[in-house]
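Example record used in the benchmark description.
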Amino acid sequence: MEHRTLVLTPWMSPHRIISWEDAICDLIVGKLDVLTSYEEVVRSPSVEFQIPCVARLVRHLAGYKKGVKFSRFNVMTRDHFKCCYCGRQLPMRQLNYDHVIPRMQGGKTVWENIVTSCYPCNDKKAGRTPAQAGMHLLRKPHKPKTLPLTTPALSLQHVPDAWKSYLQPEALAVG
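Model output (structure tokens):
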């Protein structure tokens, strides 16, 4: 079985996707409430469970980490999966991150020098600063204190119907 379980926060926002086996373990120890299940059932000698499709955390998340880790995904989350030059919102696979001050000009790979860009804008800018390339940044890069909870970008073909009402529209990538 290749079923996965969508886990929601106590406030019904998407939190993460886990294996159905982990979902059943979390259900048994009281961490999850199951909202919807798949039709398939798993059995042990003493108990049976329908495989959880969507579940909700029983308790709130235990605090937030101090600071946000620098990563490609987190840069794109900060920039709302939009090119900081042309403003187009695209699936993650059609975006990359760009050094505002290019590395060849001494730019560092840090929050304050990295923005999300689409491939055409990145090609146009090449190894130049936005000013040198005649381009304008729509928003200045900064180190975020927190990031919004996001849903992994998922293909509509691979999302169970039961998940769709819980997912943010921008999380669903066509294809």
